[in-house]
Amino acid sequence: MNVLELTTILLLLASVFSIINLRLLKLPQTIGLMVLAIGLSISVLAIGFISPNFLETATSLIQSFDFEVLLIDVMLPFLLFAGAISVNVHELLKDKVTILLLASFGVIFSTFVVGSGIFWIVEQPIFGLNNIGLNYVDCLLFGALIAPTDPIAVLAMVKKMNLSSTTETRIAGESLFNDGIGVVIFLTLLNIKLEGIENVTAGSISMLFATEVVGGVALGALIGYLGLKLVKYIENEHVELEVLITLSLVLLVSIISHQFHFSGVLGVVVMGLFLNRNIDTDKKEDGVQKAMGEYVYKFWHLLDETLNAILFILIGLEIIPIFQNFDSAYFLISILTIVIVVVSRGIGVWVPIKFLSFFKSFEKNTALIITWGGLRGGLSVALALNLPNEIGKGKDLILFLTYMVVLFTILVQGLTLKKIVK
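Request: output the structure for the sequence above.
Response:
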């Protein structure tokens, strides 16, 4: 099937599922769409037991979406930019130390705790996975891809909660930046995996890490600054031109980042903060002029909602190829993995908050809310699919565990987050 046909199927599913969720399920949009997509996938798997040819056709159709490329190279830059321009940039700048510490410490801590925990589990004879072929670096790769929260899922849920502006900004900002840090750690570990740990030095790792982070932030700041000057020059008179400019700048940051091995994730987030809807570019008698016309922000909100719907349908449909290769022991391991992921996330959030509470105030149970609001989503699945085939059968285990953690965080944590907040 060509791109037009695949896009048509996704938009049609998004429309039909949205109507069903709106009228019948009445769940939060992202969760409702994912539940319906999972239901469709389970129905396909059930029919596949009767007619293997049907299952084979459905699997080939799902795999033709090329999920990791579609998300990381196409959808993620637009979704992150849409999230970055809507976050309260003034609150974020006032709380930048808190957000950066939460994002960096939490991801690094979770990566090593989860990776070490999975390595210990795999080594236990009781599970019969001694010969699965996963080494410590492979387990750390899983820790790195599951440690960062998904800003797309988190922002979609946080907007619906009655949180204070400060807490909402902390959750949204931490999610936006831990995403970029998590991808950088994943790519660093992947480089160690591919090059061989004996061929990797501390200097080369530091250089790779610095290039990704510093390069991404610098590129995003440069393009964001130039973009802000450009839209200010237009003076909101031609909103359609501002839309065209923002679309082209997001793609430009992504392409340059790919060419020079910068973090495109951090790049589009930083650029989005420069073009944020809360930035006052000019004071006027009748109020405040935004960085861009309100129409532009409404366009990006529409694009954000549309891509969000498609993304969570894709996550739901990915159950078909992932669940075709699993061992019965995977289910028990997935339960242990979920516990490790949630606990490590909780500790990774609680420690920085405890330290920072000596210098600034936090609302009661902020650590609990941020922990339980740490939803995982499409990024984790895409990174898991992007793992090299050299891992062997261990890749099937990592894919299964990734998917189970994503399901738990979105369906269980997502549905109970409002009660936790109350």
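The radius of gyration is 21 Å.
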